[in-house]
Each structure stands twice: as structure tokens, then as C-alpha cells.
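Predict both folds.
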Amino acid sequence: MRRGRAGAVALAVAVLSLAGPTASALAAPGSEVGMEDERLLLSEPVQAPQVVSEWADAGVDVVRIHARWGSVSPGAARMHKPAHFHPGNPRDPGYDWQTLDDAVDLVRAKGMRVMLTVTGPGPLWSSRKPGLHDPRYMPDPALFARFAHAVASRYGDRVDRYLIWNEPNIAGWLAPQSRCPRRRVCFPVSPHLYRGLVRAARPAIEAADPGAQVLLGELAPLGNRAISTRTPIAPVPFLRAFGCVDAAYHPIRTGACAGFKPASADAFGYHPHGVDHGPEVANPDRDQAQIGDLPRLLGVLDRLTRAGRIGAPGRRFDLYLTEFGYQTSPPDHRIGIKLGQQARYLQQAAYLSWSSPRIRNLTQYQWRDEPVAYRGKGDPSYAGWQSGLRYVNGRPKPALATFEAPFVIDLAPGKTRGRAWGQVRPGAGRRDVTLLRIRPGERGFTPIAELRTDADGYWSRDMSFERSATYRFAYFDAATGAYTEPMRHLSGVVDLGSDRSRRWHASQP
């Protein structure tokens, strides 16, 4: 998802329309706060219990975990399936579920829900061309369906949401992305591979776990014009190929689309990483779909579902933003953004998620940075992923404080009336909130409104604002015992006089 900066960036007018001060009645109640950190949860067993406790304390509702095919299956490097192994049977002794079991149970023990991404790469023997020695290459849909059935059978009593495959528009997860019969002349392949995987896996999951929610999509937000079989496909052309339509949305009935049958799901999962684009800014390349381009993404999905090219409930998908974050500098001085920008962008995205009735989840990726592995000049430098709310050593970034108590003032340019919005995390029941203001020359903050959150900790107030003033909110922890005094907490501050946001003015710690 590394991509150069655009010279001219268009303003996301359509995104802003998702969340105006007059739209509070449309806000989605109970918008989920998600978390994902595979490295800590699956690869750091000593640290995992403490980390999961921190997630619960920070108000996380649901944790995303990969159920990775090749990691739990036997004979991962073999060209042929091990004899006597039954991939559809979760009790087959060939499976090794222990790490995944421990992660699921640890999260649930702290009161959070789990959503499982059922994904490859699989074992080498799951490829339809194992002789290429690439387990990502053309995975067999029938074998994947058996694996998906095994996952849902094993975890059906602990999980009620499954996501089918991770980022199928990237060659690191699914190959080939394209077929290129001549130099720089390429045709998409991965959308058709993915359609087959979804069509096979969804009924297998539902047979094993009736009533479970199944999501397709899980796309990365950026791609490029194909010049090789490994070039990532941008999400908009990927979706058109997935639905077998051309650029004008006319059906295609030849080639991989001959005998087309649509895939379907209960909702659409997506990874709208902004990279260096904030939630108020659209990518001018209309093939891409980042956090500022969600109206574009929904428009594509709505055209495809209305035409019956993808199956959705009522021909209308809800969005689950199941992986989202911003890498920071420090530590990544190549493509990371400033620490203050990370804090601002994450709050703006949280407000967007709450404000739109079609966005049901926003999952932060990651909790802690991965170690920086410097590899030289250019894009490969600073390898790893550094979008955590904490540095790799556990030290908090400024965004951690605003993640636990986000605060946004939605105030359009030139206006004095808008909306104050925030959340108290964890959102365990209704809480009292005091909105505070300080004017230039005043010595302290003054209470201006008493509010009460909903059961998920969210609150909002439509009101008038002073452009020269600074705002924050205060709340108390509930007392934990008969002799325990509740602790007062303060949010970050929104200084309307100096904040550079166009409309969604987010707090700084």
C-alpha cells in the first residue's frame, strides 16, 4: 500500500455529506471499536495476556484474528495433501489449532468478541499448480471450502462473524493478480479467483455455523495499472471484474466471466488505510478507495448489487472497516505521518464511522509498532508496519490518549453552528460528560453543557461555537468500591482558532 503523494488532492465533499450536524438521527448506534495486532496476539504469548487486558481497558469491542490456512494445516510445504488428512474435519489430528485457540479464548475471557478472517496462503498442496511452489497461486476453492467449514465448526460457539480472505487484490495474499500475455498487456485474474473462493466458502461456513455473519471484500485500498502478474489491482477495477462488468458497468459474458454466477455475503469488509490522505481528503485517482473515498466505494458496490452482480441483503451492503491505521514518523521516516496527524486522523475516522449508518465497525491496526527493519533506500526502507498506538517498546504515542477519548467538533467553514461529538471508552453503560470551554484571556475552562452518553459511551450535541475558543470534555470513572472516589478524566483539546482541519476539528492531547 505504499504509494507516492498526489500533486493535487481533491476535497472529499461527498465524505463530508456523510456526517453533517443535521444528521445526528442517522448515526449508527453501537458502532464497533475493533483492534487487530497479529504479531502480539499470535506470536508473543508472554506479552499477549497483558496486551489483551489493555485492549479491554481501552474500550475495544471486537478483535480481528487471522485463521490462516497454511499455519494450522499439516504438510504446509508438501505438493500433495497428507494421506488420511480430512481438511473438512476440525478434529482431524493433522490440524494444529492451539495458537488460534489460545488467542480466541484470551480475547473472549476479557469480554471482547472475535471476528475471524478465514484466509490463505494455504499449504502448498492447496494450490491448483503446486509445482510452481507458491501456495498463494490459484488456491483450490473446494479445498478452501473444507478449511472454512472446519474453522466455523471449531469456533462456532465462540465466533459469530467470519471474513473471507485477506486483501485478495495483493499478490502477497492471492496470485496471480493478472495474466499478462504480452509486455504491459494484462488482464485481471485475482477477482475471478476470489469470486470462486467466496462462492465456495460462504455456504460451507453457514452450514457449520448457522446464523453466522459472513463478509466478503477485505480489499486493500490502493493498486496500480498492471504491468506484471504481481501488480496489485486497485479496488474499483477489482470490484468491477469481480462482478464481471466493464468500465461502463455493462455485463461481460466471455473469458473468465462465461457462465458468471455472483458471489454474495451479509456485509462488506474493507481496509481503507489513508497512508498520507486524511479522512477529509479524497484520492483524485478514482480507481482507488481510501478513508476519504468511502462514498466512491459505496457507489460502486451499490451499482453492482442493484444489478445483481454481487449479492447483498436488500441489494445494499453495510461496511465493516476491519483494518485501518496510519504509520507514523517516528519511527518510519519514509512514509510515516506526523504523530499529531495520526491522532487527528484516527478521531476523524471514528467520527465518520459513528456518523454513517452504513459503517458498522472501525478496527485499529495495530496496537504496537512492529520493529523497524531498515533495508536501504526507496520504498523498501523502514520495512515492517508502524501504525501502532504504542511504539514497539510499549511507550504510548499521542494517539493512544485520543483513541480512548475521541473528541471532534464538526464545524463547516464560515459557520458558527455545528456538532460536538465524542466517546468515553470503555463504553460500559451511560456516563455523564461535561463539555468545557476556554476563551482567549480566560484562566481556566468553564462548563458549558452537561451531557449523557449512550450505552456505548457515545455522546453528541448540536450547538453554536466560538471560532476563537478552545473546547474539551470531562468525565468520571465509576467508583469501584464503597470507599473509592471516582477519578476525573479530561479529553484532548480542540483549539478552533488554530486547528487546520477543514471541517472535522479533532482534539490534540
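Second protein follows, with its predicted C-alpha cells after the sequence.
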Amino acid sequence: MAALRGHDVTLYDKDAKLGGQLRIAAVPSGKDKLNYILEYYTSQLPKAGVKMEMGREVEEGLVKQVKPDVAIIATGAEALIPDIPGADGQSVLNFWDVLSGKAKVPGEKVVVAGGGTVGCELSLHLAEQGKKVTIVEMLEEVGIDEEPITRFDLLSERLPKAGVEFLTQRTIIDITDKGVTVLDPFGRKSRVGADSVVIALGTRSVETLEDRIRDVVPEVYVIGDSKQPRKIIDATYEGAAVARLI
């Protein structure tokens, strides 16, 4: 949008490929159409005149060298790892690494910690690979952040048919190589056996350069998950809105 409005735009990304979390979000079953978004930008960015510097992380020194009039920080988020005893164990993975293919989930029985949209889609993805999956969620229901039609389909059809089990109103208090210990609303402890545990408790914003370049760049904006982890539509809107402000 900024390029279409006449600005000289350079996009930097430390990854060698465009897309970031979008590539991960498109992995679970039924989500492949998200790749259409990536295909669109891959085609349209060069046509709009955007210069792309892939595989190059932006540091303070680079900003001082380039001396931009405006810096828009959209570095996204990273997987949130809770402060739970055993969360750093060898049998514990995070959803980001699993969906990106960076890590394989060993064993047959898997506990997915977190029953939001990410946890539900990840569980279906693992169940379709033959894993026996149990979702552990601290709230009364799973998938409450999912839009209604998709949520109904997941909870009433796809997850049950795939054999995914739900354990709600349970808080994980420790993790071992044998599974997890959970606490129910009445303070009772129980064990859920598993060969692997995958953390799917959302994301947290990546630390940005904002404070370090405020004195160097006249205008600095933070958008998308860098500002606050949310949805694709929020990041898209904020990108377009900022491009209209500069």
C-alpha cells in the first residue's frame, strides 16, 4: 500500500522466504487456502515496486546506515512457552516448531497444552498423522476464539472423528517425560500420560527495535503481532492503515 501511494519501500526479513506465521498457519488440515494470501503478495510486491531484502535481519546499525524517513516494525510474534516445571524438557515441543516441520513429535500419545484455535487445529493435524491426542484446556470449553462455523465443524465433527479427546477446566502444573500433572477446579491432582507434550498456548510479541531507533527515524510504527498478537485480519488492516498515514 505504501508503494502504491508513491513511497520508496524496502521490505527486510531475516527469513529467506516471505510469509512468516502465515506459512505455519496454512499447514493444518483445511487451512491451505491461506497460501493464497502469500501467493498474492509474492506476486504483487515486485509489481508495486517494493524492494525486498530477504535473509537480512534489521539491526540498529542498518537503520542508521539506511536513514529511512519512516520505519514500520512488523516482526510478529514467537511461541509462548509457559513457566511450568518441566516445560523445557526434551519431550516438550512448541506448536510453531511442529507445524513448521522443524520438529517431529515422537511417540504415539500426545498432550496438547492449550485448546484455543491453534491447539485444536494442531491436534487435528497430529491425529491425522495417527497420534492419540488429548487437549488440556484450563477454560470450560475449547476453541472459543475460533469463528462459530469453523468451531462447530471442529468440535462436532472433525476432532471427535479423529479421536481427539478434550480435558477442560484443567491447569497443567508440571510436565515430565511421562506426561503432565493437572489440577482441576477443586484442587485435585491427576496424571495424563503422554509420550510428548506440545505447547499451544499462543504467542507473544517479539522484542522490537522501536525504543532504539526512535532517535534515528522521524516516524516509527509498530503493527500486527509486534504490537499485540491477534489475527491476520488485524495485521492486514494495520498495515494498510499505517501506509495511509505516512
